[in-house]
Amino acid sequence: MRHFTNVHDLGDLKAAVKEALEVKSNRFAYKHLGQDKTLMMIFFNSSLRTRLSTQKAAMNLGMNVIVLDVNQGAWKLETERGVVMDGDKPEHLLEAIPVMGCYCDVIGVRSFARFESKSDDYEEKILNQFIRYSGRPVFSMEAATRHPLQSFADLITIEEHKKTEHPKVVLTWAPHPKALPQAVPNSFAEWINQTDYEFVITHPEGYELAPQFVGNAHVEYDQRRAFEGADFIYAKNWAAYADPHYGQVISTDRAWTVDSEKMALTNNAFFMHCLPVRRNMIVSDDVIESPQSLVIPEAANREISAQVVLKRILESL
Ligand SMILES: CCC[C@H](NC(C)=O)C(=O)O
Ligand SMILES: NC(=O)OP(=O)(O)O
């Protein structure tokens, strides 16, 4: 595998999950793969889980790791070609990217949607420049439209905990005071649509995700009806995608907060969230603290999803 940016890069998902569970049970068995190889992790945005789990995965594989927070310590980067650089940005991405590629063997990039241009975001303008100009294998640590390392960890977690072969999985919007990217819900939908689960997406009108990600999922505007009989509840906030409200918060209705009363409508469902989560906006304290909450094992599986991705990239070098 050269690059990892979406579900299709992993090929057969059942095989990928099987490999992940093997790695999970013997995670230090592959140190030879990463010997004398360097991972460079580049962050345009904040991170806790991705930063720590991906570094841990690289160390499990014997890799050296360099972490760069672009907006803290590096030069502010111009990303637009053709701009006269007489402002506050002393360096262009088109030099910085190949330079960074000189110092490593594999590059991970986090670059969220900027909500300035839907086309720039949905064409993955920043991530694709790293793929085009770094000369190295590149994987997404959450880009503008997807978060594949998270979605792979989510799938591993569901496969580890499902009680039926074809569980009902519900992706529910929940309120948040800030305009958050569509990357996590897009990616979760893209991955779950590749499974044979029953998949329902529920959100207020106006929060429809891009059709390419919704796929064959059933969209239900009545959250309570969506929760009926569910086996997994995956909560996440996202800003509006549809024009003219792209990137905007059009609701902070806390009637959509996931609480025990709503969870009682489900088939004793597990609760999932990628974290970080705003308690009592997205989910009530008692639900995220309940025995049905998988948020911690879900976060732990980020080390495993990253290790499988890095392992496959190293095997292809
Ligand atoms: C993993 C989630 C990262 C980011 N969350 C925030 C709070 O910016 C998001 O919603 O995409
Ligand atoms: N879920 C996730 O990617 O968390 P961070 O944003 O903390 O990396």
From TrEMBL:
Matching entries from Pfam families are given as: OTCace (PF00185), OTCace_N (PF02729)
Would you indicate the residue range of the signal peptide? none
Which ranges carry the Aspartate/ornithine carbamoyltransferase Asp/Orn-binding domain? 184-310
Q: Which InterPro entries match?
A: ArgF'-like, Asp/Orn_carbamoyltranf_P-bd, Asp/Orn_carbamoylTrfase, Asp/Orn_carbamoylTrfase_sf, Asp_carbamoyltransf_Asp/Orn-bd
Q: What is its EC number?
A: 2.1.3.11
Q: Pathway it belongs to?
A: Amino-acid biosynthesis; L-arginine biosynthesis
Q: Which domain of life is it from?
A: Bacteria
Key words, A-Z: Amino-acid biosynthesis, Arginine biosynthesis, Transferase
Q: Which GO terms describe its biological process?
A: citrulline biosynthetic process; L-arginine biosynthetic process via ornithine
The protein's annotated catalytic reaction(s) are: N(2)-succinyl-L-ornithine + carbamoyl phosphate = N(2)-succinyl-L-citrulline + phosphate + H(+)
Key word rRNA-binding present in the record? no
Subunit structure, as described in the record: Homotrimer.
The record's similarity note reads:
Belongs to the aspartate/ornithine carbamoyltransferase superfamily. SOTCase family.
Protein name, per record: N-succinylornithine carbamoyltransferase
